[in-house]
Design brief:
- It is a single chain.
- By secondary structure, the protein is mainly beta.
- It is 7% helix and 22% strand.
- It is built from one helix and four strands; from the N terminus they run E-E-E-E-H.
- The strands form two sheets. A two-stranded antiparallel ribbon has the order 1-2.
- Strand 3 and strand 4 form a beta hairpin.
- The relative contact order is 0.27.
Length: 54
């Protein structure tokens, strides 16, 4: 079995898939951006990925 190299961003409404070696890691979870990792302190929709409404 091969190792997992990518997964969905841990931010619940986020649709982004992140490569584990490039992900922002916080509290044992993997995120696509600092905004997602920090719980979107400035509101939703700022992860910067096209089509994502988180």
């Amino acid at each position: 079995m091969s190792a997992v190299t990518q997964m969905k961003c841990a931010c619940e409404p986020c649709l982004c898939i992140v490569y584990l070696e490039q992900a922002i890691q916080k509290d044992g979870k993997h995120y696509c951006s600092e905004a997602c990792a920090n719980g979107h302190p400035d509101g939703h929709g700022d992860c910067g990925h096209k089509g994502c409404t988180c």
